[in-house]
Amino acid sequence: MTDIAGQIAKHLREVYFGGNWTAVNFKDSLKDVTWQQATTKVYSFNTIATLVFHTNYYMEAVTRVFKGKPIDSKDEYSFIHPSITSEDEWKQLLDKTYAEVENFACMIDQLPESKLWETFVDEKYGNYYRNLHGIIEHCHYHLGQIVLIKRMVQNGG
Fold first, then answer.
1. Any idea which fold 3-154 has?
2. Which has the closest alpha carbon to 20: 144, 129, 107?
3. pTM for this one?
């Protein structure tokens, strides 16, 4: 583990599992959300389930790049997920997300520092460092939305 890559992996874990300075994380925020609440549409906002899927979508894409595969993600697909019609399906989405976050964090931990400054796939994407931090910022952004939508759903609007 390099110091910088290790810190990036730690930051990712904290947004999902706790310990960041915002004191808000996915696991604690979602632990009391039912599948019905996760799939409830509020105004024109995305559902909680859609946002959970969406944040994980980009981690999956970068994980594939780490494994030497081409980037094949498309923004238009990042909000399209299998329907959730039971508590079991909701739990499966959460379990899959948390496992993939931990896997992704472990992969980040293993990056040599020099890799962080290399171009990520194409110049237009910047370097690995920028993309990894972008994913974490993206997670924080959508976590804020999830927390607000959860309040609306659980408090009746």
1. Four Helix Bundle (Hemerythrin (Met), subunit A) (1.20.120)
2. 144
3. 0.94
